[in-house]
Amino acid sequence: MPTASIGPELQRLIDLLAKMPGLGPRSAKRAALYLLKKREPVMRPLAFALEDAAQKVKACAVCGNWDSIDPCAVCADDERDASLICVVQDVGDLWALERAGAHKGRYHVLGGLLSPLDGIGPDDLNMGALIARAKEEAVKEIILALPATVDGQTTAHYLTEHLEMSGVNVTRLSQGVPVGGELDYLDEGTLAAAMKARRPF
Amino acid sequence: MPTASIGPELQRLIDLLAKMPGLGPRSAKRAALYLLKKREPVMRPLAFALEDAAQKVKACAVCGNWDSIDPCAVCADDERDASLICVVQDVGDLWALERAGAHKGRYHVLGGLLSPLDGIGPDDLNMGALIARAKEEAVKEIILALPATVDGQTTAHYLTEHLEMSGVNVTRLSQGVPVGGELDYLDEGTLAAAMKARRPF
Q1: SMART domains from the entry (chains A, B) (predicted)?
Q2: Among residues 43-82 of chain A, which lie with CB inside 8 Å of chain B?
Q3: What is the C-alpha to C-alpha distance for residues B81 and B106, in angstroms, rounded to an integer?
Q4: What's the ipTM?
Q5: Is the pLDDT of residue B2 over 50?
Q6: If 0-12 CB within 10 Å is exposed, 13-18 middle and 19+ buried, where does residue A95 land?
């Protein structure tokens, strides 16, 4: 093209939008056009919300959840069962469990998984704090809600070894057929695990 | 859930991200988590770029293209053919034509299409300026690059009527089989149009 038809300010905005997960180079352009049409109702408030959240949202010193207060709203909630700690890989997984309403206790966010191949060891994750929490009088059970992947299971084994020393009960999520799942579409690994872990009807 | 597990600052950021085209409520959460992990390289620069573009990017007084300079870079480029004006619905269509390198002249962005059903009339669009431009000595041809929809064709007919008075040559994009397109997958309307507009080989 003879000259760049997109000015530098707009191009920089498009390049930054394109870095977000879910947006590619084309959808970033579409998003930029949308935002320019909604400057006052969306674009400016979004700029403010980004800067505001970047400043205020921090990892909770107790559990690693992201919140603007510390300890976070979940840790500060007295109605939650302090004897139950659910260990998750990431804040997104905490949100997923909260959405399901599946856990009424506290959480602990690791911030990742052990991954020898990527050079991620125990010191790179929020693990020391979990092992310290496990020794607290009130904590009775630690639920490992980690993904059923190689790294997830490596992390679960490592944590089980280090947590059982403190006498706490370590459990993990069950594996099996998803609710509403058709057997025909399930992979062999899940079917084999569901068969092995069969329970009386 | 017992308490909201997402704080107000974070929730507002997610709600605003979810308004962008291409992002829904879930992908907005994923985007927010990604941004919080990349505060310095992406999140803060994005906040700045949004505010900066909201302030500086304006519609070009000549053609309606969005740029931080006025007249825009396309209008200010002397190497472009001033005798050819390509009329598009939106800035996104201008970018698409520039990507294709299909047009070496100037542009005119209408900012929408005539739509009697939605109550959009000629005065709601950037049409007066186009009719004035058509009367300029230098302008020889106006290419209507409008969508092949009912509203697009309504707008094209309206513009043709008003532009031909000024003696300028009005053309439109050809319709037919897309490059690389299989006949078997084409709709009947396109096939009929391609047959009707057949050309010597």
Answers
A1: TOPRIM
A2: 43-54, 56-57, 65-69, 72-74, 77, 79-80
A3: 7
A4: 0.83
A5: no
A6: buried
